[in-house]
Design a protein that fits this description.
The protein has six helices and no strands. With 244 residues, the protein is mainly α. The chain has a domain of 146 residues.
């Protein structure tokens, strides 16, 4: 009997502790259920920046594409087609030789041109003195005849040599036809060439024995004089085109 009473007392005492244990376990379960529900807002706030940062991470992936589309700062001044077409020509030994030959010939052309202009000026001056001596009441002493003939030969030779250097100089580069100083120089020198040729013919005709003492001889002399000044003017204008 006493054993039965002891068992009942033990059960009565264990019941509250079991209820307390069950209540604590229930609270722990509720706390674990509440924490996941309350944690998502915090996790959403903490994970929001990575979600917003995703667009910022995309440019590095697009960077190679933009770099290939946009031109870099390392570029050539020529177009790609011109570079590929002209680079081999610029490195061509034949073109380099042609450029060097053209530079040498044009340098000689300029030097001989200055000498020719000076000689032609002296020819015109001495020719005027010779004309005055023979046909304008100078007494026909013949003091300037030899000087004039020598200067004519010198100026004509220099004129021909200067012209050949300019015409025969190689032209490795193609040049578009346009009105510039070089074109004007060629036009004036072409006019001077016509004047020089005409002067030579008139000088030979005037000095011939068939015209000696004839009225036509004075007319040829006058035409020769006018063409001499015109030719000198054309040469001067051609040189000014190069100088300026």
């Amino acid at each position: 009997m006493s054993r039965t009473v002891a068992i009942l007392l033990a059960l009565l005492l264990a019941a509250p502790s079991s209820r307390a244990f069950a209540a604590g376990k229930k609270k722990a379960a509720e706390s674990t259920q509440v924490s996941p529900k309350s944690s998502p807002p915090q996790s959403s706030e903490t994970q929001a920046p990575p979600a917003e940062a995703k667009p910022a991470e995309t440019p590095p992936s697009d960077a190679p594409v933009k770099q290939s589309e946009e031109p870099s700062m390392d570029f050539d001044l020529l177009e790609p087609s011109q570079t590929s077409a002209e680079s081999p020509r610029l490195m061509d030994p034949e073109m380099e030789r042609a450029i060097a030959q053209r530079r040498t010939m044009l340098t000689l052309h300029q030097g001989m041109g200055l000498a020719m202009a000076a000689t032609l000026t002296a020819t015109v001056i001495v020719g005027q003195l010779n004309l005055n001596d023979r046909y304008r009441g100078g007494g026909d002493t013949g003091a300037y005849k030899g000087w004039h003939a020598g200067l004519v030969i010198a100026s004509t030779s220099l004129f021909v040599g200067t012209g050949l250097l300019g015409v025969l100089a190689p032209t490795p580069f193609k040049k578009e036809l346009r009105l510039d100083t070089i074109t004007l120089h060629k036009i004036f020198m072409s006019l001077a060439t016509v004047g020089m040729l005409t002067q030579v013919v008139l000088g030979l005709v005037t000095a011939s024995s068939a015209q000696e003492g004839q009225l036509s001889q004075v007319q040829y002399v006058t035409a020769h004089q006018v063409l001499g000044y015109a030719t000198l003017g054309a040469v001067g204008a051609g040189m000014l085109m190069i100088a300026f």
